[in-house]
Specification:
The chain folds into 4 domains: 3-92 and 253-321, Rossmann fold (3-Layer(aba) Sandwich), CATH 3.40.50.620; 94-250, HUPs (Rossmann fold, 3-Layer(aba) Sandwich); 338-389, Orthogonal Bundle (Helicase, Ruva Protein, domain 3); 398-489, Arc Repressor Mutant, subunit A, CATH 1.10.10. The longest helix has 16 residues, at 20-35. By secondary structure, the chain is mostly helical. Helix 9 packs across helix 11 (324-337) and helix 16 crosses helix 18 (449-460). The N and C termini lie far apart (86 Å). A hairpin with a 6-residue loop joins strand 3 (74-75) and strand 4 (82-83). Helices cover 45% and strands 10% of the residues. The chain has 20 helices and 13 strands. Bound molecules: glutamic acid (GLU). Glutamic acid (GLU) is lined by residues 11-13, 45, 208, 222, 226.
């Protein structure tokens, strides 16, 4: 690996589905790797034993795969086997590595075993707050020799490993952030912090810093809420003599109420967007623009275009507001740009799931999509659009009942059924439909709503809605006849 190789990572904690914020972090890192011919690494931060599960790891991977954010190194999709030269890529499988570095810090006097209990720490915190001091731990075990601590542990006492923050005059730590320029942290912002829990499990700041260094990560783009962790990570880098990656802290995503985006704002997980008929390329496009802008001011971009254009100098440090309407619009644009064959493949599972029975003939499908795709914002919208085209029987809507009471309705529907039956082809063309409608008007002497509404009820089961001249040519003659007969059977008298 050359020194300048770009290596970025996405490091999710697998405690649920991949949400929009996580997906954006993954996307920016992915795009940065693509733009710079670098590597995109997936690292699983599963040290929270209570909340991390293998099922969540798989779900997050499925979502990344769906979004097309393929990783070059990391646990492989499905098998979870490590792939790459810097594994293991799951933190729960790297515990001996963290232990080794914790020992190194202890040996160099920069870490110690600490036996303070939670209640003792709480008492210290309260006292510090009362006297207006920052609530930092002041451990009596700070300068204990390691042997003494080990003896105490041999007797069964539990200890965490704490990092010993340097006793020095207050100074500023300086972070040249790629998004926020110069970030300064006062050195007294943190007190001695935990590296390893009593269980031996590492704490996020420790394993993250060790892994970023050992995995030769060159750049870290992550959410702004990690900014305050970065000081601790910088201290660990310094003490272990590691080269620090370049950090870029990206803005938060807010809901329309300007609170941090969460489940309260509706769908926030990528999985939900998937099942609701959003396209991965549209979701990528939309979330990319939450905090980044194209140098050409493009609003609709393919992954390829984004990868060509992505640079951190266009990452915005101000918070972005998540607008579901805009997402839907972006989705509709990507959806309409798809070739019909491809769109059909995507729409079909939604139609099948809704139980619609539609003709299998390709020409028919392409024609039908051509008619309906302009009205579809999501793949799922196809269900309601295509429902009237299904061969399965349709129910009459309550509003249809009034139409059925008009004396002329039976005459119109009967004439309609007969006309359809007599058509030579399996499908009526638009002209044939118009001609038949005119013929019924002239022969039966009905016009206006008394003509159109009964026919509409006979075709779609309701008196209002879709333009029949578009719809009728897509319905097989046999379906039209069956529907007309169904309506006739429901006319009383
Ligand atoms: N596991 C952390 C998270 O999911 C990663 C933070 C980082 O990128 O350093 O927030």
């Amino acid at each position: 690996m050359s020194n300048s190789e770009v290596r970025v990572r996405f490091a999710p904690s697998p405690t649920g589905y991949l949400h929009v914020g996580g997906a954006r972090t993954a996307l920016y890192n992915y795009l940065f790797a693509k733009r710079n011919g670098g590597k995109f690494i997936l690292r699983i931060e599963d040290t929270d034993e209570a909340r991390s599960t293998e099922e969540f790891i798989r779900m997050q991977m499925d979502d990344l795969k769906w979004l097309g954010l393929d990783w070059d190194e990391g646990p492989e999709w499905k098998t979870l086997k490590d792939s790459g030269a810097y594994g293991p890529y799951r933190q729960s499988q790297r515990l001996d590595i963290y232990k080794k570095y914790a020992d190194q810090l202890m040996d160099s006097g920069r870490a110690y075993y600490c036996f303070l209990t939670d209640p003792e720490i709480e008492i210290q915190r309260q006292a510090a707050m009362k006297s207006g001091r920052p609530p930092q731990v002041n451990s009596p075990y700070r300068n204990w020799p390691k042997e003494k601590a080990l003896e105490k542990m041999a007797k069964g006492d539990k200890a965490v490993v704490r990092f010993k923050v340097k006793d020095e005059e207050k100074r500023d730590y300086h972070l040249p952030d790629l998004v926020r320029s110069d970030v300064r942290f006062p050195s007294d912002m943190v007190g001695d912090f935990v590296l390893l829990r009593a269980s031996g499990m590492p704490v996020y700041n420790f394993c993250c810093a060790v892994d970023d260094a050992l995995m030769k990560i060159s750049h870290v783009f992550r959410a702004e809420d990690h900014l305050s962790n970065t000081l601790r990570q910088m201290m660990i880098y310094d003490e272990l003599g590691f080269k620090q990656p370049q950090f870029g802290h990206i803005s938060l995503i807010l809901g329309s109420d300007r609170q941090k985006l969460s489940k309260r704002h509706g769908a926030a997980s990528c999985h939900e967007y998937k099942v609701n008929g959003y396209l991965p390329e549209a979701l990528n496009n939309f979330i990319a623009l939450l905090g980044w802008s194209s140098p050409n001011a493009q609003e609709i971009l393919t992954m390829k275009e984004m990868a060509e254009q992505f640079h951190y100098d266009r990452l915005n440090s101000a918070a972005a507001v998540f607008d579901p309407q805009k997402l839907m619009w972006v989705n509709s644009q990507h959806l309409r740009a798809l070739p019909n064959e491809e769109l059909w493949k995507l729409v079909e599972p939604f139609l099948n799931e809704a139980g619609l029975t539609l003709p299998s003939d390709t020409d028919w499908r392409m024609k039908a999509l051509e008619v309906y795709k302009t009205g579809m914002n999501t793949l799922k919208d196809a269900v309601e659009a295509f429902r009237p085209l299904s061969e399965s029987p349709i129910e009459l809507s309550p509003e249809a009942q009034e139409t059925l009471t008009w004396p002329s309705t039976r005459i119109v529907v009967e004439a309609w059924r007969k006309g359809v039956e007599q058509t030579g082809s399996d499908y009526l063309s638009e002209e044939q439909f118009n001609k038949l409608q005119d013929q019924i008007k002239d022969e039966q002497n009905v016009k206006g709503k008394h003509l159109f509404m009964p026919i509409r009820v006979a075709v779609i089961g309701k008196p209002h809605g879709t333009e029949l001249k578009m719809l009728v040519p897509l319905l097989h003659k046999r379906t039209l006849v069956a529907r007309a007969e169904n309506v006739l059977s429901q006319i009383k008298g």
